[in-house]
Automatic annotation (TrEMBL):
Complex and partners: Heterodimer with ALG13 to form a functional enzyme.
Protein name, as recorded: UDP-N-acetylglucosamine transferase subunit ALG14
Family: Belongs to the ALG14 family.
Residues passing through the membrane, by range: 12-33
Membrane topology: Single-pass membrane protein
Length: 235
């Protein structure tokens, strides 16, 4: 075997794992297979309440993002029947207000459910007004603590429901990474805030490629981003 042939074989062996990794990414990345245009008001389109869970008792994880994000999420969930699924409510560390609102929602709407709710707290990926340098440290800490929290759960979520803010990014990407390696089958649903009229939030932009369903509440955003779903205002 001559030198050129040996070199080609070595290069092929080195590139093969990269090729396999790219093929796997294409297979699990929702953005890749979503190029067909969707009618604006299609009667056949799935509604938000069609949460893709097929087995009773599966887990839905809901991130309450504090402040207006929490209020929006709870108003949206008031139209969704979650009684047949276990729930994991996630809040940012120190956000006792959102935690209490999540518990109050459970007491008001899901006391008759046979499936229990659990609660988890995650460090913020970036605090308001925090510098870029400090945010790198806090983001890494958020990734680490998120992995620890997920490992401690008795059941990984079948659906992750998000509407921002920054804490949603580490949580979503970790679960997407686990799905990449075949460790879970979590569907990621992101609902952009009603406050975003003309452009997506930073969290929305980061999660657009990996979200299985990406829902906006303004027609202009639907027309601007081809993967977006639009059903009008949801709150």
């Amino acid at each position: 075997m001559n030198y050129e042939t040996k070199l080609c074989l070595k290069v092929a062996l080195l590139l093969f794992p990269l090729f396999v990794a790219i093929i796997r990414l294409i297979a699990v990345l929702p953005a890749v297979g979503s190029f067909s245009e969707q009618p604006l008001f299609s009667k056949n389109a799935k509604s938000l309440s069609d949460v893709p869970l097929s087995v009773k008792g599966a887990n839905i994880m809901i991130l309450l993002g504090s402040g207006g994000h929490t209020g929006e999420m709870l108003r949206i969930l008031s139209n969704v029947d979650m009684s047949n699924f276990s729930r994991t409510w996630v809040v940012s560390s120190g956000d006792t207000t959102s935690l209490e609102k999540g518990k109050a929602f459970e007491e008001a709407n899901l006391l008759s459910s046979h499936y229990k709710a659990s609660y988890a707290s995650l460090p913020r990926a970036r605090s308001v007004g925090e510098s870029i340098i400090l945010s790198i440290k806090s983001t890494l800490l958020s990734f680490y603590e998120t992995i620890r929290t997920l490992r401690a759960l008795p059941q990984l979520p079948s659906v992750l429901l998000l509407n921002g803010p920054g804490t949603s990014v580490p949580l979503a990407y970790i679960l997407f990474g686990m799905k990449y390696f075949g460790l879970c089958k979590t569907s990621i649903i992101y609902i952009e805030s009603l406050a975003r009229v003309d452009s997506l939030s930073v969290s929305g932009l980061l999660l657009l490629p990996i979200s299985d369903r990406f829902i906006v509440q303004w027609e202009d955003l639907y027309l601007k981003y081809h993967r977006a779903e639009y059903y009008g205002m949801l709150i």
